[in-house]
Amino acid sequence: MTVRRAWIERDGELAVSRQCELAGVARSWVYGAVGEVLDEMDLVLLGLIDAQYTCRPFYGSRRMVVYLEEQGYMVNRKRVQRLMRVLGLAGMAPGPNTSRRHPEHKIYPYLLRGVAVVRPNQVWSTDITYIRLEHGFAYLVAIVDWYSRRVIAWRISNTLEAGFCVDCLEDALRAHGRPEVFNTDQGSQFTSEAFTGVLKREGIAISMDGRGRALDNIFVERLWRTVKYEDVYLKGYASMSELLVGLTEYFAFYNGERPHQSLGNRTPDAVYASGEGGGASIVDRFGDPSGPSSASPDTAGKNLASTVGA
Predict the structure, then answer these.
(1) Which of 89, 99, 105, 243 is the 20 to 30 Å CA partner of 187?
(2) What does the pLDDT look like over 178-206, one tens digit per residue?
(3) pTM of structure
(4) Burial of 72 (C-beta count, 10 Å sphere; 0-12/13-18/19+)
């Protein structure tokens, strides 16, 4: 694989994607999300960083350096920051390390703090996570219905281009209609005109996580932890094709068979179809709890602590 990767020329007559295809090399093995060449040690470190971040998404680059040292890897902070950018990761604590934003893209306000989610298709949200493969890595995007925790749609890609996120969104809209509110982080894929244009076309209110806010998209963060510990880390997928087959099976299980404690041990499919037994509310810890954005009395007690469990 290392020899074949050396065949790839950035400035060659053929596009890098075509060279990778001919050489039998994954593009993600040659280029990271920000156009950087990755070596074998980078890929090892990416796997360790991803696993630790899945457990502790509040870790920034400083804490990640300490963690890697404990695992026997002496890595400076600059390298860790670079690798976290490749994964699109940033510690949840407020500070300079935030989601990769595009300086020219419009950022929308967060609309869901203190709002009670009381029906399916009221709020959907999305995010991207990294999945380590035997040779390279992949990115997974998923759209989740907040009321039922149902995975509405998902796609994988070996680059962080916005296209696969837009395709996932279009899949969800075709299959399930329109949500009232769609929430994302401030990553460039979701702030792009290609993505927000679809939401505006459909008349969907756009909500984006606040910078450094750990709880704004907690339901998708919890999904990533569940998927990785119940499937990805156990199976150790080698290729994109294996990953596609494996995730197809897992998400069918997750939606249709796996009981969720927060749903009264019902499945997301059952709650989504019936419109009963779900719900969510991100508690407004920064505003007036008696204000107009607070959760309604009939959902009192159905707060974050009781709804994020899978």
Answers:
(1) 243
(2) 999 999 988 888 999 999 999 999 999 99
(3) 0.70
(4) exposed
